[in-house]
Design a protein that fits this description.
This protein is an alpha/beta fold. It contains 13 helices and 14 strands. Helix 6 crosses helix 9. The longest helix has 28 residues.
């Protein structure tokens, strides 16, 4: 067999010549163009390509081990028979994705993401590199599944100072994400055979809806207004869990009043329920200091407090935490160990140093200074250009804000899809409801350029007018 250079050429500067030969031959065999053919000897192919014979031998050995090459009589080697060539197989059916990402640079007004261009690379690299070189032998073993004690203490010190949380380090569980924390709490506390009920803020976090439902819970929506969740309006039985975002309600952005907080704690004590307090972005407040966490005023051990570094630093770090009541520590530790949802010890150690050195607080201060004018500029420009179409929510802290359509009956999912196709990435408000929804759009401000936001909102206005007029 002669080997045409058109399909077996080597990129020598990139290295791994053995791998290049292996991949090229494998792909050609899978295509059906080399079915049951005798292959060139290793010596002849090596001479043709100008590589060591051992390089070709190793590539052939990999193909033999995977069944692509087979030895035949007389010592010759032939390619395997491919029943259905790869090129002849039908392409997998593509399921349309609603609000599919269109490219990081084009996702204007996308909520839920921080501005990663200001990530403190140098400081983080120093912390991570130092720990990678000098991590204690003890910490490299099968340490406590709850997390590195240094990070548990650093997190507790941070949230005690900034959020008024009261706990001990052993109550802090390190997990990869807020979703992982919700999943663990659901696994421990929800029993499908009991028909356990979870009260959910309405509107509320869609991922939490899905995680609780996957655990077998029955969800009961509880309305939110300008003061937050109103438990006096809850209907549908005694809750096992109550999910809430009291400091910055998601997605409306409102802050729960003290009266509502106390009522929520009272009902949790009366029904023996656990309040899941998701404090996902409390660090970003522009007008005033955020009020203390619900956990800090809980004197009965009914609140599990969730926090994450996804908004403060970067989602890709995959580090979050849950602070549970003392009586729940053992069960949560067992569930965490069984689930195997641990965070790399090197990342935990680096983050502990990053926090102890004051770098996290410094980064949050810098980002607040960046986000505040972006929020103000976006709200002002949107109100001016699109105020006749959208009503903007009054709460404008954090990394997003909610809007609602003035006109009734608009399908906000269709609108969001059409805007997505134009390079925008707002989310429809209806997706956050379990019951009857109020249509609107959720805007993110983290990636907005305050200098050019006026042109962006004018583009949005034109897009909305086109879509809503039925000519999109």
């Amino acid at each position: 067999m002669a080997l045409p250079p058109t399909w077996l050429t080597l990129d020598r500067p990139s290295g791994d010549l053995e791998g290049q030969i292996y991949r090229a031959l494998r792909q050609h065999i899978l295509s059906g163009r080399m079915a049951e053919q005798r292959v060139t000897s290793t010596r002849a192919l090596a001479n043709t390509l100008g590589v060591a014979r051992s390089t070709v031998v190793k590539a052939y050995d990999r193909l033999k081990a995977e069944g692509f090459l087979q030895a035949s009589g007389g010592g010759a080697t032939r390619t395997a028979a491919i029943a259905t060539p790869l090129s002849a197989q039908p392409a997998p059916k593509q399921t349309p994705e609603r609000h599919r990402n269109v490219g990081a640079g084009e996702e204007l007004f996308k909520p839920g993401v921080p501005d990663l261009s200001h990530f403190p690379h140098a400081a983080w690299a120093r912390c991570l590199g130092a720990r990678a070189r000098a991590l204690r032998i003890h910490d490299l073993g099968y340490s406590d599944s709850e997390g590195l004690p240094e990070l548990q203490s650093a997190i507790l010190e941070h949230v005690s100072t900034t959020r008024g949380v009261s706990a001990r380090p052993e109550q802090v569980m390190i997990v990869p994400s807020t979703g992982a924390a919700i999943d663990l709490l659901a696994r421990v506390l929800v029993k499908p055979d009991r028909d356990d009920i979870v009260w959910m803020e309405e509107p509320g976090y869609k991922a939490a809806h899905m995680l609780f439902q996957a655990a077998g819970a029955r969800l009961v929506p509880v309305p939110c207004d300008a003061q937050g969740i109103d438990v006096t309006l809850a209907a549908g039985g005694r809750p096992r869990l109550i999910y809430t975002t009291p400091s910055h309600q998601y997605p409306t952005g409102v802050t729960m009043s003290l009266k509502r907080r106390l009522a929520l704690l009272d009902i949790a004590r009366e029904t023996n329920a656990i309040v899941v307090e998701d404090d996902y972005d409390s660090e970003f407040h522009y007008g005033s200091r955020p009020i203390a966490a619900l956990q800090g005023i809980d004197g009965s051990g009914v609140v599990a407090y969730l926090g994450t570094f996804s908004k403060m630093l970067a989602p890709g770090l995959r580090i979050a935490y849950v602070i549970v009541p003392p009586w729940l520590v053992a069960d949560m530790s067992n569930a965490l160990r069984l689930k195997g949802a641990m965070v790399s010890i090197h990342l935990q150690a680096a983050l502990a140093d990053f926090m102890r050195e004051g770098r996290l607080r410094a980064h949050v201060r810098r980002m607040n200074a960046l986000y505040a004018p972006r929020m103000a500029a976006t709200v002002e420009a949107l109100g001016r250009d699109c105020g006749h179409i959208l009503r903007i929510g009054e709460e404008n802290d954090g990394l997003y804000f909610a809007t609602w359509f003035h006109k009734a009956g608009i399908n906000d999912e269709i609108v969001a899809d059409a805007l997505n196709a134009k390079g925008m990435a707002m989310q429809p408000m209806s997706q956050f409801y379990l019951g009857s929804a109020k249509p609107g759009l959720l805007f993110g401000i983290a990636r907005v350029d305050a200098a050019t936001v006026n042109s962006s909102t004018k583009t949005l206005r034109d897009g909305l007018n086109e879509i809503l007029s039925g000519t999109a």
